[in-house]
Known about the structure:
This protein has helices spanning about 10-25, 40-60, 80-95, 105-110, 130-135. The protein is mainly α. The chain folds into 2 domains: about 10-105, no CATH class; about 120-164, no CATH class. Helix 1 runs antiparallel to helix 3 and helix 2 runs parallel beside helix 3 (about 80-95). The radius of gyration is 21 Å and the shape is globular.
Amino acid sequence: xxxxxxxxxxxxxxxxxxxxxxxxxxxxxxxLPTPCTEYxxxxxxxxxxxxLTRAALVGEGDPDALARPxxxxxxxxxxxxxxxxxxxxxxxxxxxDDTKLDTLVTPAQRAEFKMDSRWVVLSRxxxxxxQLAVQPGWHVLPPASPVALWTDDFSNVLSVFxxx
Length: 164
């Protein structure tokens, strides 16, 4: 796994909390509106389960995962908790292997010339991006050399790149 924070514990916690809320939904609530104006409660449940299924498909290496609808179709009114548990179990299993966190692009995507990427944020002062630097997945790069990276008269951005 990379030096980035492992998102899976937080994702499992979100899955558990969402499952608790979803299990408490009653049939008389299905047609109620939600903050997402295009969804009533039933459609939102479908979207939540469909999105979780998409996450599972990505983890399973399906190259068309994100092209699939993010909706669960054909779920009976009494079947939402079971459909959610199945999607949650599938997504959790699909991402159980630590090495998947380091694989941002599937072999099929590489064949289409899609590649992993790393991003660097530059600023004159560290305080300009201090809030970003403490977020999961981001870290401050150590100085690569005593050469100045940035001054008012000079920019040596290429010195921070990691060429693979």
